[in-house]
Amino acid sequence: MTEKEENMDASDIHDSVPKTKKNGRTSLLDSGEDFEVLDDEDIDDDPPPLEDAGGGKGENTDESHKINADTEPHPPGHLDEWLDVLGNDQLKKKVLEAGDGRDSRPQKGQNVKIHLKTYLKDRALVEEQSDLTFTLGDGDVIHALDLTVQLMEMGEKALIQTDAKYAYGTRGSLEPEVPPNAELSLEVDLLEATDAPDLELLPPAEKISLASHKRERGNVHYQRGDYAFAVNSYSIALQITESSSKVDISPEEENELMDVKVKCLNNMAASQLKLDHYDAALKSCVSALAHQPENIKALFRMGKVLALQGEYTEAIQTLRKALKLEPSNKTIHAELSKLVKKHSEQRGAEQAMYKKMLGNPTSGSSNIQKHRAKSSWGLSWKWLFGATAVAIGGVALSVVIAARN
Questions:
Q1: What is the mean pLDDT of residues 332-344?
Q2: Quick check: do 82-195 and 204-350 share a fold?
């Protein structure tokens, strides 16, 4: 994939990652919605099923299915004893101060509040957060926290050691500043656990804010290459935007909520493309276009999906529609030109195959036409010769009759 194509596919992950510089382009496709570039990496009806998308609440992702709040691989240890959370020695938890008992553990879907200190392996302090609040199990934080906090008791203080795989991965992080492939130590105090708010009673402004937060978290997962987790976050955001409401909502707020929904569908399609789930990606694009028929990003991505599925004619029509909406976009031009050329080559190959299968019927037809033309000319010359002979004979007979008279 070329750099221009990467730029075209990049989503609005840029806005959710601090300190990242924008590329400065003014094109609508590169205008800070969901085609911004971040580290040269790719990045909106009903959302496609999570099992089709490769992630989400309906499917256990990575090692997260190996534990839950009631059944961990080993019984909880005493103070200063390490618990190998996943059984691979890459995520370990040690109780520093005991909590209020097993029954006080938080449940997935609850909002928890923790006090967090993050250290590098050499014990250098990276960040301290006094009241970090997140929804347990939604992927709002690094995997190490999502997996271990559900094993903590209320009031417990624990030390967590995690491999980079369950923290900030091979890319690291800009904020907090964590180098690539960094192992971390986390000091966690579980302060509070409360039920998530009822979406039907949530004021529209808060619903928009919550959906946007989940979408931005999906962008972070995308940027790290965790595409299944990104799909999960976008799906949660979509559920929020589509939830019914028992409170009044203004037309402006409805439009804003719809805008968040379309962005989620667009970004979900990008993630599904990364997972090679083309049918699911196509459903996401169709859903986005059902709400915004002239959404260029959805049209562009839909064109790419159709091309990958071998539907070149439909893909070309879709990209031409996108180009008509933004004629100056070079990325669409390039993608369309490439696709037209590929389609032409495919048609040429198919025609050659048909000729071979049918014994080169075009050549045979040409020979028949040549034979017919030759025969036609032969008949014409014979007719002309005969007509001339008759004419000459008629003149001679006239001369003989005149002489006798």
A1: 87
A2: no
| pLDDT given at position 295 | 96
**Which CATH topology does 204-350 take?**
1.25.40
Q: For residue 27, which of 223, 400, 300 has the smallest C-alpha distance? A: 300
176 prior amide bond cis, ω within 30: yes
Spell out the domain ranges in the chain.
82-195, 204-350
Res. 345 pLDDT band, cuts 50 70 90: confident
The encoded tokens of residue 131 equal 């009241």
Q: How confident is the model at residue 358 (pLDDT cuts 50, 70, 90)?
A: confident
DSSP 161-202: EE-GGGTTTTT-BTTTTB-TT--EEEEEEEEEEEPPPPGGGS
Neighbour order of strands in the sheet with 157-162: 82-84, 91-97, 157-162, 184-194, 111-120, 125-135
Whose CA is closest to 313, among 347, 350, 351, 266? 347
What is the residue whose two structure tokens read 């369950």? 166
Tell how strand 125-135 and strand 111-120 pair up.
Answer: antiparallel
Write down the pLDDT at residue 343: 77
Residue ranges of alpha helices (H) inside 77-160 are 143-148
Q: What is the CATH number of domain 82-195?
A: 3.10.50.40
pLDDT digits (tens, 9 = 90+) for 146-182: 999 999 999 999 999 999 999 999 999 998 999 999 9
Residue 357 confidence (pLDDT) = 75
